[in-house]
Amino acid sequence: AQTVTQSQPEMSVQEAETVTLSCTYDTSESDYYLFWYKQPPSRQMILVIRQEAYKQQNATENRFSVNFQKAAKSFSLKISDSQLGDAAMYFCAYRSAYGYGGSQGNLIFGKGTKLSVKP
Amino acid sequence: DAGVIQSPRHEVTEMGQEVTLRCKPISGHDYLFWYRQTMMRGLELLIYFNNNVPIDDSGMPEDRFSAKMPNASFSTLKIQPSEPRDSAVYFCASSSSILSYEQYFGPGTRLTVT
């Protein structure tokens, strides 16, 4: 079974600085998707960025980028120029690429990292 | 699009009562997921549907939980009877096409069972 581990329960960053959140995962599959979701105090789960395992190029969305190391099964999120609105829980998630069927369709989440942004 | 809609946003009930949570997926989406979030266990998939048919309910904790999807635009998650350990935030999410990898989440329902 696949697992996702976020080893940093809490992180803090100064406004305008850069912070990196860590995520590792375990799988025997070769094709899959990885995601970072943001959950602000409003509870809404918001997709921040996604990465297809077959793509070597790291995904980037504005101030958010990932460092995807497939061999090491590592998927970290870098937030540049941190803003107060970035304060939230961040969840790393894994999904098999082999379509839906049985338990293959669901997202497997890490426990989350709580990010605080200091003004 | 209005996004995934869930109701109620908050529910407080007494142990033993029946609780019904509701979800309207994004129009055109043919997959619907129910998740539960607690401090202890994090985010867990309870059940998901494809074209209104339950595909995997292995995450449903016990027989007190049931979920239905009578049509493409509506799903319910029912707990009967409710217990204090059911207190959690319940999310509904939807996605489109068999190969879609992006799930869109609703705002969640915070359930408190006293």
Report on the structure:
The complex is a heterodimer of chains A (119) and B (114). With 119 residues, chain A is mainly β. Chain A is built from no helices and twelve strands. In chain A, strand 5 (32-39) and strand 6 form a beta hairpin. The termini of chain A are far apart. The mean pLDDT of chain A is 91. Chain B has 114 residues and is an all-beta fold. Chain B has strands spanning 5-7, 10-13, 19-24, 31-38, 42-50, 53-56, 65-71, 74-79, 88-95, 104-105, 109-113. In chain B, the strands form two sheets. In chain B, strands 2, 4, 5, 6, 9, 10 and 11 form a seven-stranded mixed β-sheet that branches. In chain B, strands 1-3-8-7 form a four-stranded antiparallel β-sheet, with no helix packed on it. In chain B, a hairpin with a 2-residue loop joins strand 5 (42-50) and strand 6. Chain B starts with a strand and ends with a strand. Chain A binds chain B through residues 33, 35, 37, 42-47, 50, 52, 91, 95, 97, 99-103, 105-107, 109-112, and chain B through 31, 33, 42-43, 45, 48, 50, 55-56, 58-59, 89, 91, 93, 98-99, 101-105, 107-108, 110.
Give the terminus-to-terminus CA distance of chain A. Answer: 41 Å
Q: What's the helix count of chain A?
A: 0
Unreliable spans of chain A: none
Shape of chain B: globular
Rg of chain B, nearest Å? 13 Å
State the gist of this model.
The complex is a heterodimer of chains A (about 120) and B (about 110). Chain A has about 120 residues and is mainly β.
How are the SSEs placed, and which strands pair?
The complex is a heterodimer of chains A (119) and B (114).
Chain A: E1 3-5, E2 10-14, E3 19-21, E4 24-26, E5 32-39, E6 46-52, E7 60-61, E8 64-69, E9 74-79, E10 88-96, E11 108-109, E12 113-118
Chain B: E1 5-7, E2 10-13, E3 19-24, E4 31-38, E5 42-50, E6 53-56, E7 65-71, E8 74-79, E9 88-95, E10 104-105, E11 109-113
Parallel strand pairs in B: 2-11
Antiparallel strand pairs in B: 1-3, 3-8, 4-5, 4-9, 5-6, 7-8, 9-10, 9-11
